[in-house]
Amino acid sequence: MPDIQIGGLVSFTTIDYPGKLSAVLFLVGCPLRCAYCSNPHLLDVGPGEYDPEKVYNWLQSRVGKLEAVVFSGGEALMQGDASISFIKRVRDLGFAIGLHTNGFYPKMLERAAEYVDWIGLDYKATRSKYEQLVGNSIAYDNMIQSLEFWKTTGKDFEVRITCDPRFVDKNDLIAIVDDLSARSIHTVAIQKYIPHFEDDAHKTTADQRNQFFDDTELRHKISAMVPNTVWRE
Ligand code: SF4
């Protein structure tokens, strides 16, 4: 089995796994090409910069100090068996395991579920705009399949909507939350789009990015649909 390829590491965070002190590992490779990707250096599968055994040994030294390890990317399930076996090894150390995923690999998610305690799943746009945003025609259906599967596990999760005004408008946001409500999803995070690169900064205005968060009526409407909505500005 090939080694896991790790392209990044955050050694301490309080925001990537709800309520737990965590480290985040960024695995290389992603099948999508989102217009707003903040990790373009992780998209191609190739050698990661981090020696997996050194990372594992470092995680061993964190037992008792950190509560969780979050696997992110790229898409953390794209490395298949290598991802799952490394996730299992880390969980065997006693950490809770979080997974940030775009949901592209529902079958891999089914295989990984035994070793994963919580996921943050991206619901990036309405079905009609999904391909335009992510550059892949089956990504929406796969994401929905992952979402429906994860519900059956009974484990915690959060569905995340990033409001890039180029791909999500207020009506889209309502339509997405309405869909989630119909699917009995109770934890939704609505995230502000923040351009990560200078090249992207001029493509949207601050007002366009803020419009969802400044609209009290919209916020009330959405909170009425899914009471546990978190707004991340
Ligand atoms: S799913 Fe995430 S890592 Fe992959 S292209 Fe989209 S934003 Fe980038």
Question: Layout of SSEs?
Answer:
Elements: E1 6-13, E2 22-27, H1 52-62, E3 68-72, H2 81-92, E4 96-101, H3 106-112, E5 118-122, H4 127-134, H5 139-153, E6 156-163, H6 170-182, E7 188-192, H7 198-201, H8 206-214, H9 216-225, E8 230-232
Parallel strand pairs: 2-3, 3-4, 4-5, 5-6, 6-7, 7-8
Antiparallel strand pairs: 1-2
Helix pairs in contact: 3-5, 6-9
Bound molecules: iron/sulfur cluster.
Residues 30, 32-34, 37, 39, 43, 73-75, 102 line the site of iron/sulfur cluster.
Can you give a write-up of this model?
The chain has 9 helices and 8 strands. With 233 residues, the protein is α/β, with parallel strands linked by helices. The protein has one domain: TIM Barrel (Alpha-Beta Barrel), CATH 3.20.20.70. The protein has an 8-stranded mixed sheet, with helices on one face. Strand 2 (22-27), helix 1 (52-62) and strand 3 form a beta-alpha-beta unit. The longest helix is centred in the middle third of the chain and has 15 residues, at 139-153. It is globular and about 50 Å long. The protein starts with 5 loop residues before the first strand and ends with a strand. The model has no long low-confidence stretch (mean pLDDT 96). Iron/sulfur cluster (SF4) is lined by residues 30, 32-34, 37, 39, 43, 73-75, 102.
